[in-house]
Amino acid sequence: MHQTRERERMEVKARAPGKIILAGEHAVVHRSTAVAASIGLYTYVSLHFPTDSDNDDTLKLQLKDVALEFSWPVGRIKEALPELGSCLASSPTSCSPETIKSIAALVEEQNIPEAKIGLAAGVSTFLWLYTSIQGYKPAMVVVTSELPLGSGLGSSAAFCVSLSAALLALSDSVNLDYSHQGWLTFEESELELVNKWAFEGEKIIHGKPSGIDNTVSTYGDMIKFRSGNLTLIKSNMTLKMLITNTKVGRNTKALVASVSERTVRHPNTMAAVFSAVDSISKELATIIQSPGYNDLAITEKEERLEELMEMNQGLLQCMGVSHASIETVLRTTLKYKLASKLTGAGGGGCVLTLLPTLLSGTIVDKVIADLESCGFQCLIAGIGGKGLEICFGGSS
Amino acid sequence: MHQTRERERMEVKARAPGKIILAGEHAVVHRSTAVAASIGLYTYVSLHFPTDSDNDDTLKLQLKDVALEFSWPVGRIKEALPELGSCLASSPTSCSPETIKSIAALVEEQNIPEAKIGLAAGVSTFLWLYTSIQGYKPAMVVVTSELPLGSGLGSSAAFCVSLSAALLALSDSVNLDYSHQGWLTFEESELELVNKWAFEGEKIIHGKPSGIDNTVSTYGDMIKFRSGNLTLIKSNMTLKMLITNTKVGRNTKALVASVSERTVRHPNTMAAVFSAVDSISKELATIIQSPGYNDLAITEKEERLEELMEMNQGLLQCMGVSHASIETVLRTTLKYKLASKLTGAGGGGCVLTLLPTLLSGTIVDKVIADLESCGFQCLIAGIGGKGLEICFGGSS
């Protein structure tokens, strides 16, 4: 087991991107097509095992962005979660309700401050994925992220994907080139394994996730999805988006329910609205996949995408999921003739603004200054980039 | 001809209401249903003939709101428009292109100030309707209006309807109770005659009017229309709207064309959008026609109408006909939880805000103050009230 030994001395860093919904949110619940894309903003998970000389018998988790640190003696974990000793890294399973309870107790012992209690489910997911894949082994795991938490950009999925990847990278279940310098991509079958584990992790955080976020985060690029069927699509253009986080918290379940209630009250109208959204998503996917030739063709494609975004936004307003903060972003970007739409659940959250290839940096700076003066957070990200990647560091 | 003599000594005043589109603008061009309603804001036309002792041989027109006065010697009119001598008040005809030219020359002689040149077509319509119905007869016609001009509230139709009605009321073609005190309604067949003349007048102003504005102004209440078919509908509820005039001028033809172009680019999406609007118009008509029982039922109906207005507005945004000024009105009224939608062509123009029955006057005052502080003009009007009415004054 020379390879295992070598791995155990390594540090691995995994990164997985966030996602946006380009078109079709809400309507997708009513059997319309939606399109999601990865964004060039990542969550990073680094993992290493202490050497024997460290004499350290604890599992440590550092969440750098929220300045939280947790640590559990591995004996305590083994005692609390004996059933996870028989897990196989190569066979993802779901976390049983009983195990969730035992894990919750382990998390509770850590006394998370009240203001950050929303992170408890993420910590539970960590304990479960860690123990299921690596067993009762001391380690140090550090998490950092460029993604704002809980704003609909798939931060939890990016966490689950990068964590699962780091854990699997140092397990017997994957076969990697450990001598590779720089970022490395997984093989297809390994990506599938990561995606499955990440989905199981997402379940602990979200209950019934759609699987879209972890799939986009794992594979990158874009996916088209409808009625539970996901299709990876190959983007043929470089898209850049301004992502404005309104910082207005929303209740996704309540928003989804309100659209369903409106659908019950106005079945014919809403069926037509969902059908319009379906057409928009399909057209958008076609444009993104079509080959681009030159600057002119790219500008034309961007204009078409902008029009589709404006139309989708109108239909989302028709569904009643916009919000005053979203309207403020729309108004602000419209002043600069830029097209925007909400992304995700609406009712606050994030707004996308397409930044055309030929748009001057001066304009971008002005828009951002305007939006930040409203108290919003602005992020610029490339769309449809790479998914999960890992990188090996020297032995520590 | 005792009756004729009596009429000639009378003063008649006619009033005709403006209109709003409650649902379906733009989509109606693409075969969707739309609903229009009369509003309790009127254009008034008063007419009287000078007595023989006045020794006045001129036709005078006073447009009070714009402080303009015109006068033509009747001999000059007869000389310029000899072909109108054979017109019958009972048989509306279209104004020929040649006659329009001769009339334009008569209007030009009046030297309308450059800033008010937009009123020239209305003055042409006046000369044509007057001469066609009353011939070459001296008279004094005074026009006042509660409707802002050119803002999509049907001011030109209200002018044509009230003018045609006043002219017909003092002609042999209608049979009225001249001794009636107060406002009087025309008989069905007389309304039809007024409506036809008004439509011919509208053609001079608008080229190819839909006939909706003059029909609503003539008959009052509400009409449902689709593919050129108009159906009068009987409203069963009292509706009050705040009408906000953004004062942003728009180019209706260009807006209609832009929706058509978008329809060519995205046929499937737009077909679904128009179908959604069609459902909204039909549902709105059904609610308005359904019997209301008590305050609770009225509140429920109002909430349903508000939701339909919000949905229609989203679909109009999807068509791309909203405007920053419209969005400002929407935002402002939303602060007070009031639902709004643009009415008419969009791109500026007027915005409707439903004022629920149980809404306090204090809130209404606050909303209006907010909107006026943005430079908008606010009008409050009952919806679906009476159409054309006339009133006889004493002999002058």
What distinguishing features does this structure have?
396 residues; 12 strands; Alpha-Beta Plaits; eight-stranded mixed sheet; four-stranded antiparallel sheet; 21% strand; homodimer; Ribosomal Protein S5, domain 2; alpha+beta
Question: Can you characterise this structure?
Answer:
Chains A, B: Keywords: ATP-binding, Cytoplasm, Kinase, Lipid biosynthesis, Lipid metabolism, Magnesium, Metal-binding, Nucleotide-binding, Steroid biosynthesis, Steroid metabolism, Sterol biosynthesis, Sterol metabolism, Transferase. Chains A, B: Its EC number is 2.7.1.36. Two copies of one chain form a homodimer. Chain A has helices at residues 2-8, 74-80, 97-108, 120-134, 155-169, 188-206, 212-219, 252-265, 267-289, 295-319, 324-335, 361-373, and strands at residues 11-23, 34-48, 58-63, 68-73, 139-145, 222-226, 229-233, 239-245, 340-343, 350-354, 377-383, 389-393. With 396 residues, chain A is an alpha+beta fold. Chain A folds into two domains: 2-233 and 385-393, Ribosomal Protein S5, domain 2 (2-Layer Sandwich); 239-383, Alpha-Beta Plaits, CATH 3.30.70. In chain A, the strands form two sheets. In chain A, strands 1, 2, 3, 4, 5, 6, 7 and 12 form an eight-stranded mixed beta sheet that branches. A four-stranded antiparallel beta sheet of chain A has the order 9-10-8-11, with helices on both faces. In chain A, α3 (97-108) packs across α4 and α8 packs across α9. Chain A starts with a helix and ends with a strand. At the A-B interface, α9, α10 and α11 of A face α9, α10 and α11 of B.
